[in-house]
């Protein structure tokens, strides 16, 4: 009996030693990894963030290849197909599975209201062709012209998201609109980052009077209501400006108020690490303030800066959408999600033609995806918690 007890104690002791060795090995592996490797390991466990990256990747790729993915030019009008409801691609009929097709659409003018009334003609089935040669050409990345489309219909038309009051394809306009709506956030963030890093870095490192002056400027900028400021600056844009000029003007307008948040984040991080030993050693070695800020302080803040960037981009997108929706931002013939939502400004339009609000769904999805990625980065920025 005593031998069995001794054997059991030995087995328990050996198991405890194995567990302790395993914990030491895991701890050594954890310490051997760099901060960015630990961030990636933590980020991979955030499923919503990974899903957000996939959604954003699909959106940006769709914007890049909009000419290939959409069957029509975003400004092409089909006068005989105004306010048509979205068409569904079908793969089955009474005989079972078959190649993709859409039903035909017939229109008649109402003798009382004189409005066109469209009905689905189930007797007419129009096959959908893939890698279709369209009627119009487009420039592929500005390199060459082509008329190759992902899908289309040889004899007829296909409107996946329906058409607007002028007979323009809402699907084509929504995908093309992603180019301006999604890129305006990226361009605006570049300006905000430059200003935020510059003023935030100087404020956090120098302190004293310099810090007080910059922080009062930040507080004054934050105190200005954003929407009235955007509306005032947007209304000041000349009507004769081109789409490109208005685009960059809106980027500057959004960046004027976007840099202050970045500056505060950078200042707070630099204040927390400027008295650490490695910074003191660099200062004692005779390193200049500019070198200390750019080589030692800012790199140690990059994870938090990256989080702030990801959460700031949705604000830029919503700002452009709001300005364009109110008619103070991008204007036709420019195509952005905000411009498309101008048609959904009244309840009657949304009630009768709910597909007008489809670009708004894209805005919501893009903002949520950016926020999910930002949440994942925020959790991953502190992998030691």
Q: What features would you describe in this structure?
A:
This protein is an alpha+beta fold. It folds into 2 domains: 87-158, no CATH class; 172-380, MetI-like fold, CATH 1.10.3720. The chain contains 14 helices and 5 strands. The chain has helices at 2-32, 35-44, 47-64, 66-69, 170-206, 208-223, 226-235, 243-273, 277-284, 289-297, 302-325, 337-340, 347-352, 358-380; strands at 90-93, 96-109, 116-127, 129-140, 144-152. It has a 3-stranded antiparallel sheet with strand order 1-2-3, with no helix packed on it. Helix 5 (170-206) packs antiparallel against helix 6 (208-223), helix 7 runs antiparallel to helix 8 (243-273) and helix 9 packs antiparallel against helix 10. The radius of gyration is 29 Å and the shape is elongated. It starts with a helix and ends in a 5-residue tail after the last helix.
Give me the strand/helix succession.
Answer: HHHHEEEEEHHHHHHHHHH
Mean pLDDT across every amino acid position: 81
Poorly predicted residue ranges: 20-24, 26-30
Distance between the termini: 47 Å
**Contiguous helical run count:** 14
The H-level CATH homologous superfamily of the largest domain, spelled out, is: MetI-like
Could you describe the largest sheet, including whether it forms a barrel? 3 strands, antiparallel
Give the beta-strand count.
Answer: 5
- How many domains, in number, for the residues? 2
Major sheet: arrangement of strands: 1-2-3
Stated plainly, the CATH topology of the largest domain is called MetI-like fold
Share of residues in strands: 5-15%
Cα-based radius of gyration, to the nearest Å:
29 Å
Label the overall shape: elongated
Please identify, by name, the CATH architecture of the largest domain: Orthogonal Bundle
């Amino acid at each position: 009996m005593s031998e069995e007890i001794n054997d059991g104690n030995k087995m328990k002791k050996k198991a405890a030693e194995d567990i302790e060795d395993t914990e030491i090995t895991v701890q050594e592996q954890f310490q051997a990894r760099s901060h960015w490797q630990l961030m990636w390991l933590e980020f991979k466990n955030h499923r919503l963030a990974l899903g957000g990256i996939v959604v954003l990747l699909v959106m940006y790729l769709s914007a890049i290849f909009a000419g290939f993915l959409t069957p029509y030019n975003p400004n092409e009008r089909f006068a005989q197909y105004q306010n048509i409801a979205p068409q569904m691609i079908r793969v089955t009929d009474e005989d079972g599975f078959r190649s993709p097709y859409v039903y035909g659409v017939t229109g008649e003018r109402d003798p009382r209201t004189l409005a066109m009334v469209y009905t689905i003609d189930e007797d007419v089935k129009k096959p959908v062709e893939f890698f279709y040669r369209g009627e119009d050409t487009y420039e592929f990345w500005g390199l060459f012209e082509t008329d190759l489309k992902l899908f289309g219909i040889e004899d007829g038309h296909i409107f996946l998201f329906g058409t607007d009051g002028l007979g323009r394809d809402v699907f084509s306009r929504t995908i093309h609109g992603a180019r301006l709506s999604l890129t305006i956030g990226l361009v605006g963030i570049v300006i905000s980052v430059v200003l935020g890093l510059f003023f935030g870095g100087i404020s956090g490192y120098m302190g004293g009077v310099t810090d007080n002056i910059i922080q009062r400027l930040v507080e004054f900028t934050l105190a200005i209501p954003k929407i009235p400021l955007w509306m005032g600056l947007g209304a000041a844009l000349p009507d004769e400006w081109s789409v490109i000029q208005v685009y960059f003007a809106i980027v500057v307008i959004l960046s004027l108020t976007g840099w202050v948040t970045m500056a505060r984040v950078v200042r707070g991080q630099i204040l927390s690490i400027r008295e650490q030993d490695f910074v003191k050693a660099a200062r004692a070695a005779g390193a200049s303030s500019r070198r200390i800020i750019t080589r030692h302080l800012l790199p140690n803040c990059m994870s938090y800066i990256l989080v702030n960037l990801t959460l700031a981009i949705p604000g830029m997108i919503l700002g452009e959408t709001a300005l364009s929706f109110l008619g103070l931002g991008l204007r036709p013939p420019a195509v952005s999600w905000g411009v498309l939502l101008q048609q959904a400004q009244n309840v009657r339009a949304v009630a009768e033609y709910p597909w007008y609000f489809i670009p708004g769904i894209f805005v919501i999805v893009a903002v949520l995806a950016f926020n999910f990625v930002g949440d994942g980065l925020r959790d991953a920025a502190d992998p030691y918690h």
